[in-house]
């Protein structure tokens, strides 16, 4: 349990535009957390927010390694989102209130 709490603190301690630290966390998390774990996806989302939006991290200016990381983060988050949407579509009776809003 202690290690898990430490992960949450590490994510919160990273500055919002520090791509290198978020990439470091992703490398660390792959040894402890499932690829679809909330914190892994959260770090990937934060990296997506940096890539293409922050000064110096425009997609066309990124080195090849960072471009591949950005594309991987985007496709992983899209894959998980698509799975969640598909699950909601398959169970409209249980999730009917979500569609009624």
Summary keywords:
single chain, mainly alpha
Mean of residue pLDDT values:
76
Alpha carbon gap, first and last residue = 37 Å
The total count of helices amounts to 5
Q: How would you describe the shape?
A: globular
- Estimated helix fraction: 55-70%
Q: How many β-strand runs? A: 0
Gyration radius from CA atoms, angstroms: 16 Å
Instruction: Provide the β-strand percentage band.
Output: under 5%
In terms of quaternary structure, the protein is: single chain
User: Uncertain runs with pLDDT below 50, 5 residues or more?
Assistant: none
Main sheet attributes: strand count, strand direction, barrel closure = none
Structural class: mainly alpha
The helix/strand series, from N terminus to C terminus, equals HHHHH
Briefly say what this structure is.
67% of the residues lie in helices and 0% in strands. The chain has five helices and no strands.
Task: Write a structural description.
The chain is mainly α and about 100 residues long. Helices cover about 65% and strands about 0% of the residues. The chain has five helices and no strands. Helix 2 (about 20-30) packs antiparallel against helix 3 (about 40-50) and helix 3 crosses helix 4 (about 65-90). The chain is globular.
């Amino acid at each position: 349990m202690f290690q898990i709490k430490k992960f949450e603190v590490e994510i919160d301690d990273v500055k919002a535009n520090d791509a290198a630290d978020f990439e470091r966390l992703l490398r660390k998390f792959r040894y402890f957390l499932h690829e679809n774990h909330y914190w892994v996806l959260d770090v990937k989302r934060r990296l997506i927010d940096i890539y293409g939006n922050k000064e110096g991290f425009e997609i066309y200016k990124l080195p090849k390694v960072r471009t591949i990381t950005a594309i991987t983060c985007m496709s992983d988050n899209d894959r998980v989102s698509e799975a969640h949407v598909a699950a909601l579509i398959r169970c409209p009776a249980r999730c009917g209130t979500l569609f009624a809003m």
